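#structure-requests
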Amino acid sequence: MASIMTIAVTHKKLKLDQMDTTLSGLRLTRPGEIEKMCRRLNQSGQLNPVIVRPVETGYQILDGFKRYYSAQQLGWEYLDAGIVDVPLADGKAMMLSYNRGGRSLLDYDEALVVFSLKKDHLLDQTSISRLTGYSRSWVCRRLALVEKLDTVVQDSLRMGVITNSHARAIVRLPRGNQDEITRCITENHLTSRDTLLLVDKFLDSPHRKDQQYILSHPVEVIEKSITTGEIYDIRLGHYGNRLLKSIELLYLQQNIFIALCTGHMSSRLSDTETEILDGRMEKLKKGTLSVGSIINQKAWKDER
């Protein structure tokens, strides 16, 4: 495909009812994004044109779906548009190219476009690579997010329940295990980093009994995995490595604390238990303020 810079773009004001949104299914609109775009358009106006290609029904949007839907909500009649006269397959490839610099597309958005090129245009990985300008390995990884990721997990990704980083870890599992791992992630509020560790442990466990233990005790499994593993960086001295280890362990305990406090079990604490824990929470609050001060003011650097 010719680069964006060599494709002629005609700029024109278009009515919203002239625009075709049939490719919007290849882009995820996550909760709150339209509201943010509405505020941006209200404050600054339209800074960038929507990119469209001419079709029989009007102009098919390639880039700028959030601007379009936000303009609809705001009651706008027109949007500035850049018109490119390209075939449909090239237009889909341009959906990737227009967002390459800003990285506004996430892995799964890219995967939807790549899968569409394979399924709807019957292109193989080499042809998709040539058309999009991405490597074959990149194309292969994106296809895996659609072809190897369970539909339930894809739905969780679409709804923003899990992130792209979570999905990259989950896709390494057999499809039959992906749903249960996803539930484990969401119920325990696991970070993508914790998820990667959990998936590694799950894949290393050949027996179902061991896998079920991992699913039932994910936080403990992750904690044990980190505390028993060596936390060391050859580039750091003795003190630097001690600091590194304390950071990693503090980060781990922070995630465990968040998972425990936001889980359903916290509502089952008795009044006596809550009273006992309140005092500890106050101590933790003071410590949190000190940690925040160190990080924000970089006090650990200033001491040198």
